[in-house]
Amino acid sequence: MSVLVLPLLVPLSTAVLCLVVAQPRVQRTLGLLGALALLASALALLLEVHRRGIQAVQIGNWPAPFGITFVADHLSALMVFASSVVALAVALYALAEPDPPRERLGYHPLSYFLLFGVNGAFLTGDIFNMYVWFEVLLLSSFVLMVLGNGRAQLAGGVKYFAVSLFSSVLFLVAVGLLYGSTGALNLADLATRVGELPLGLQNALAMLFLTAFGLKAAVFPFFFWLPASYPAPPVAISALFAGLLTKVGVYALLRVFTLLFTQDPAFTHGVILWVAGLTLLLGVLLALAQGELRRLLSFQLVSHIGYMLMGLGLLTPLALAGSVFYALNHMLVISALFLLAGLLDRLQGTSVLVRMGGLYRSHPGLALLFLLPAFSLAGLPPFSGFWAKFTLAAAGLEAGAYAIVGVALLVGLLTLLSMAMVFAEVFWKASPEGRSVPEGWGRLAVPVVLLAVLTLGIGLWAEPLMALSQQAARELLEPTPYIQAVLGVSR
Amino acid sequence: MNTLILRTTSSFLFTLLLLLSVFLLFRGHNEPGGGFIGALVAVGAYALYALAHGLKAARKLLPLHPLRLVGWGLLVALLSALVALFLNKPLMTGVWFSLFGVKVGTPVIFDIGVYLTVFGALLSALFGLEETARTGGQEGG
After folding, report:
1. What letter would DSSP give residue B40?
2. pTM here?
3. Cα–Cα 20 to 30 A to A470, which of A254, A410, A482, B42?
């Protein structure tokens, strides 16, 4: 039995069992067990891929390229692993702050269907199936977004729904054109055929995919929907979205622009580099202008997607390794910050920065806890964010792309400024009025501590994860083993 | 709708439609039909009954909440997909075996799962819509 299907079966089984039992109390236990099992299966997959190379499974035993293929290389396995860490943190948070009305409406099964879709998108080896997995995760996220029918949730949900649907249509059109011109849908099969198409058609297809995935990944100029919708749902939902959903878009871009569209990198990857630079700059500048914590973090999330695209745009081994490392690091850090925003909201009764304050005096430990992911986001040593930015900057200098390196470093500084402003507003500033702080927040801090310790740990001992990222980058740049693993050696 | 003809016929049309839905479910293995279409017909039976006798009466015909059926249906489908794993074949590979002289395959079990899932999902939508209509859309779902 292949471990490749476990990261799909575990969330699916958890979701189905949650649907069957229906009692929130049992669902919570099931949810936590599911998250732990998911982490274990993701770790097993990562070990398997690392030891034995790229793994492929033909679902239903129909041979590729006709059947449904699942493939796990280092990139897929790492993304699945990081998303299961985020899932565990969010499950711990949901356990510490139960929300019975939303649980009765199906919070637990829906969040596991979401994880099922996310892992499916990471592991699929077929472009049309990737579309299907996107739909699985989007449908779950639509319901999660408006779960409980809050006014802000519905307002954000409509925007999210409209943009996601538009991007899905674009994706489907692009897949249709690709199938019409090559007659293939299997990614490995496509990799051998796309190169034979006229260059103009290839570039047109590439831009369609860039737009479709760019909308999902929330990059310039399509990021407007994210800060409008992510702050709306409760934090246990928005932290999950922030950690996972945009990364699925980034993953799809990484996959498609290394496996399929590599014939004219001066154009395609040049465009990606421009998109990266503008996303970085506009995201962070807009973040500096925000007065509400979760909106500010949403713009930071957008801005830092630019770093991952920067590595893809440069398309060197070191740069791609930097992108992969950045994506992994960012999943942990941004989820930690979103969970912290929820915790601070709980302590202060608001997440509007001017009305917050005084927490340094009352909760110095919490201030320290905030600084860990915040510094990691800004890219200060000794956190994981430092190595991510360092690798990308080094790769950029190596490639002679001084402009984008300049932008990347400037954005790092501005992120630090933005985080320092948050720290000053929330922790240093005197409390606006004598407000009593509710007790019993300690359990909410557990998942944040877990993620913060991880980002510090990765920062201090970056070698293993960096080696894995570099291996992922090598596999992306040299797709022959991937194609062989799917189609068989004989072809 | 409160007419004598509809009320009288709907009672045994309900049974007939349910039988037809099961027939369609198993016919789908080799000929047009299948779990999805079968479930649509079964929901049609409930819709007809609800039109004639009211929603409360229709709800009473189902002993559990339709959303639970979605869960059970998915569980059945999931288990049918897992069978192949225990025989060391890739996930969802079709496995056939004989049960009391009848040839049974995992695709049929999968289809039964689809039937239950679609039935439960559409029925909860039907009940939900009726509920929203009654409360004037004040509380959704």
Report:
1. H
2. 0.93
3. A410
Number of helices (H), then strands (E), belonging to chain A: the values are 21, 2
B13 min Cα distance to partner chain A (Å): 30
Tell me how many degrees the CA angle A356-A359-A363 measures, rounded to the nearest 5: 155
ipTM: 0.87
Q: What pLDDT was estimated at residue A433?
A: 67
Q: Is A71 helix (H, G, I), strand (E, B) or coil?
A: strand
Does A57 fall in a domain?
no
Q: Is residue A433 part of a domain?
A: yes
Cβ within 8 Å, pair B71-A20: yes
Average the pLDDT over A405-426 and give the result. 95
Residue A491 has a pLDDT of 41
Residues of A in contact with B93 (CB under 8 A): 60-61
Count up the domains in chain A and report the number.
1
The CA distance from B24 to the nearest CA of chain A, in Å, is 24
The arithmetic mean of pLDDT across residues A195-203, rounded, is: 94
Subunit contact B90:A17, Cβ cutoff 8 A: no
Least-confidence region, from A235-244, A283-292, A427-436: A427-436
Those residues whose C-beta lies under 8 Å from the C-beta of residue A290, and which sit 6 or more positions away, are: A227, A296, A299
Out of A5, A19, A60, name the one closest to residue B74 (CB).
Answer: A19
Which residues in chain A have their CB less than 8 angstroms from residue B105's CB?
A: none
- Report how far residue A124's alpha carbon sits from residue A256's, in angstroms, rounded to the nearest whole number: 12
Smallest Cα–Cα separation from A80: which of A115, A126, A34? A115
Q: Find the domain containing A408 and state its range.
A: 275-477
| Residue A198 falls inside a structural domain | no
Is residue A315 a part of any domain in this protein? Answer: yes
| Nearest residue to A419 (alpha-carbon basis) of A302, A312, A329, A288 | A288
**Which chain B residues have a beta carbon less than 8 Å from that of A57?**
90-91
Q: Is the pLDDT of residue A434 over 70?
A: no
User: What six digits make up the tokens of A106?
Assistant: 């199906």
Q: Identify the residue whose tokens are 């290394």.
A: A258
- Asked if B85 is an interface residue toward chain A (Cβ–Cβ < 8 A), one would say yes
C-alpha span between A185 and A151 (Å, rounded): 41
CB contact under 8 A, B71 and A22: yes
Average pLDDT of chain A? Answer: 92
Residue from A70, A175, A172 nearest A124 by CA: A70
> Are residues A19 and B71, on separate chains, in Cβ contact within 8 Å?
yes
CA gap A61, A470 in Å, rounded: 32
**Beta carbons of A356 and A347 less than 8 angstroms apart:** no
Q: Are the Cβ atoms of B71 and A2 closer than 8 angstroms?
A: no
Would you call B79 an interface residue with chain A, using a CB distance cutoff of 8 Å?
no
Residue given tokens 């009692």 in the structure block:
A23
Q: Which residues contact residue A172 at a Cβ distance below 8 angstroms, ignoring those fewer than 6 apart?
A: A131
How far is A202 from A31, CA to CA, in rounded Å? Answer: 44
Give pairs for A422-426: CB < 8 Å, separation 24+.
A422/A293, A422/A296, A422/A353, A422/A370, A422/A374, A423/A367, A423/A370, A423/A371, A423/A374, A425/A353, A425/A354, A425/A356, A425/A357, A426/A293, A426/A344, A426/A348, A426/A353, A426/A356, A426/A357, A426/A359, A426/A370
- Out of A9, A16, A149, the one facing B74 most closely (by C-beta) is A16
Dump pLDDT digits (tens) for B77-135: 999 999 888 888 888 888 888 888 888 888 899 999 999 999 999 999 998 887 776 66
Across the range A7-33, mean pLDDT stands at 92
User: Are B90 and A57 in contact (CB < 8 Å)?
Assistant: yes
